[in-house]
From TrEMBL:
This is CBS domain-containing protein. PANTHER family: CBS DOMAIN-CONTAINING PROTEIN, CBS DOMAIN-CONTAINING PROTEIN CBSX3, MITOCHONDRIAL. Residues 22-123 form the Cyclic nucleotide-binding domain. SMART domains: CBS (SM00116). CDD domains: CAP_ED, NT_GlnE_GlnD_like. The keyword Oxidoreductase does not apply. Residues 174-230, 239-296 form the CBS domain. It comes from Candidatus Accumulibacter phosphatis. Pfam families: CBS, DUF294, DUF294_C.
Length: 636
């Protein structure tokens, strides 16, 4: 072919491509580079242009004319048409090409199709040369994330809509069997029942189980304690007679109106015979209306007992579900959960400080692990410690014993509030984690100087710390000391990199995912161990190597990447991958807890839809790219 004919074809290709993004914005030099290297291929109607059985993708396809149906693969199931059809100007096989893998499904010509095809080596060369084209390709994962978030949002919005509302009848609001007593029951027995069953009120009934009175917590103070009334008298003498009742068919709006009209906080639900069937409290209606962040935070800060704080976890979970259904991102939700959990922890500490006097002592309560990173999900246990200053005039052993007594009470109360005691005893009540500032610095120094396996494991937990209460400057001094020690110890950083590489992304060469990591749960992937950890380990290492004080994974990645001259687009793709895995964890844990299970991190890839599977694979590939960088940086 003559040079003139070749130039005409190149010009025609350029003109055709310039009608579509990103080619309409590409630098002229690199658009010509592309046009000179593509080949125009024809596929008749029904032809399979690309499929899994074709093997590792070797070509970028850009539709020049015609339409292509994207068929999804269902494992051993027959291929079925998806709702996705590609038209002129659209590209496909970008994800497979960038990851050097086979495509997920199949691309079939709906009618006669003409495609520009670019070989893999030219594709990668173009991504290096053209900023616009590189951005287009790296934003591919962001596009998948948006699709997945939209689907997740719709799913959770539906579930949120199915939750109880103010239009719900009382019959579905009162799920707990009512507790009631007879009129001649001694006050002492009533108070004991209320305390043992965590009740805010007690209903008094007659022989037909019809309510004749109600006795509340506030009545104890007003009618028993202040007047000095006998605890042996019958409850009938101090109850409020003729309580407000509504039939089970009435709704929550009716109950709210009745409470407002009569200035009461409880309404009793009764059946057709007037018999007691349940109690609706002001708090029940508050939960139905959906507590907001400010309301929950105010309730936590104003709590005067641990019993009040025990309800905070349910409020946080309900608000987090609403945030998920409204499309709020995983990073914001995990920080929101951590923020409110911080508030609960601080309030528990404050309530316990009423019984402990540490006046004149500089100290701080520390959070480790996911709470230290501001990344708590619905399922979390306690990881905490104490740092304090011991002056020359203080007895170090006695001071530690005082803090340990205090910490045991705080840990027990946090357990009551829904934060289980740590099975590994990573708690402030452990003498090994209730230390002076100098002892913490020496502990860190020992781990850095002698990076044995246990020291590296400790680093992944304790180097992610954050102060929650007390003198925050002590934690800052710990951080500066840690960064000074790690900066001057390349051996420790290299060992930390090796530890980060000890777990690989669960991607298979033949199957999409490797799901046999846990023999007790075949077919699952632990998103914490094989997903989140890969990102947090790399981010921690980047932070320590580059003197970044942040503990949050996303903040570490962004700040360290800037110092390491990693492009913002590449960093954004990594962050998107991390956030997607966090989103899957949140959704899975919520659904598990909805069904009465404790909630874990084990998901089944086969139960994900096609977009989620593609996004999860891309997320794991972003983790793999982080690990490749670690291998190169530390020559592993």
């Amino acid at each position: 072919m003559s040079n003139e004919a070749t130039e005409l074809l190149v010009s025609a290709c350029i003109q055709s491509l310039q009608a579509y993004p990103p080619f309409d914005r590409m630098e002229a030099e690199w658009l010509r580079f592309l046009a000179q290297r593509v080949k125009l291929a024809h596929y008749p109607k029904g032809a399979r242009i690309l499929a899994r059985e074709s093997g590792v993708a070797r070509t970028l396809h850009i539709l020049q004319r015609g339409r292509v149906d994207v068929l999804r693969s269902g494992g051993d199931r027959k291929l079925e048409s998806s709702s996705l059809t590609l038209g002129p100007g659209q590209s496909f096989s970008i994800g497979a090409l960038m990851a050097q893998r086979e495509t997920v499904g199949a691309y079939v010509a709906r009618d006669d199709v003409f495609c520009y095809e670019l070989a893999a080596e030219d594709f990668f060369a173009l991504t290096q040369k053209s900023t616009v084209f590189n951005l287009f390709c790296t934003q591919y994962i962001a596009g998948l994330l948006r699709q997945s978030q939209q689907q997740l949002q719709l799913q959770l919005a539906q579930r949120a809509a199915e939750q109880k509302t103010m239009n719900s009848p009382l019959s579905i609001i009162v799920t707990r069997e009512p507790v009631a007593v007879a009129a001649d029951t001694p006050v002492r027995r009533v108070v004991e029942l209320m305390a043992s069953q965590h009740l805010g009120s007690m209903v008094v009934v007659d022989g037909e189980q019809q309510p004749i009175g109600i006795f509340t917590l506030s009545d104890i103070l007003k009618r028993i304690v202040l007047p000095g009334a006998s605890l042996e008298q019958a409850i009938a003498a101090v109850m409020s007679p003729a309580p407000q009742t509504l039939p089970l068919a009435a709704n929550a709006h009716d109950a709210a109106l009745l409470m407002a009209m009569h200035r009461v906080r409880h309404v009793l639900a009764v059946d057709e015979g007037g018999r007691l069937r349940g109690v609706v409290s002001e708090r029940d209606l508050f939960k139905l209306q959906g507590a907001g962040l400010r309301q929950i935070r105010h309730a936590i800060d104003a709590a005067t007992t641990i019993a009040v704080l025990q309800h905070a976890r349910d409020d946080v979970r309900q608000l987090a579900l609403r945030m998920l259904s409204e499309g709020v991102g995983a990073q914001e939700i995990t920080q929101f959960i951590s923020t409110l959990n911080d508030a609960v922890t601080r309030r528990v500490i404050e309530l316990n400080l009423e019984r402990h006097d540490f006046y004149g002592i500089d100290w701080a309560w520390l959070a480790f692990g996911s709470e230290g990173r501001d990344e708590q999900t619905f399922t979390t246990d306690q990881d905490n410690g104490i740092v304090f200053i011991c002056t020359d005039i203080m007895d170090r052993e006695q001071t530690q014993l005082r803090f340990l007594d205090f910490a045991r009470e705080v840990n027990d109360d946090l357990d009551k509030c829904g934060f289980p005691l740590c099975k590994g005893n990573i708690m402030a009540s452990n003498p090994e984690l209730c230390l002076t500032l100098e002892e913490w610095e020496e502990k860190f120094s020992q781990w850095v100087r002698t990076p044995e396996p246990l020291a590296l494991l400790n680093a992944t937990i304790f180097f992610d710390f954050r102060p929650l209460h007390g003198r925050f400057n002590l934690a800052h001094r710990m951080r500066l000391s840690l960064l000074r020690q790690t900066q001057g110890n390349p051996l420790f950083l290299r060992m930390l990199a090796q530890n980060a590489l000890s777990v690989a992304p669960p991607l298979g060469r033949i199957r999409d995912f490797v799901t046999d990591g846990d023999p007790e749960h075949p077919g699952t992937i632990d998103l914490k161990k094989y997903g989140v950890r890969l990102f947090t380990d790399a981010a921690r290492l980047f932070a320590l190597a580059n003197q970044v004080e942040a503990t949050n994974t996303v903040a570490r990645l962004k700040r360290a990447s800037s110092l390491m001259k990693i492009s913002a687009d590449e960093t954004a793709a990594v962050v998107d991958g991390f956030n997607f895995i966090q989103m899957l964890r949140l959704r899975h844990q919520h659904f598990e807890q909805e069904h009465g299970r404790s909630g874990d991190n084990l998901i089944r890839p086969d139960e994900l839809n096609e977009v989620e599977r593609r996004m999860l694979k891309e997320s794991f590939r972003q983790a793999r790219r982080l690990q490749v960088r670690l291998k190169l940086d530390y020559q592993i």
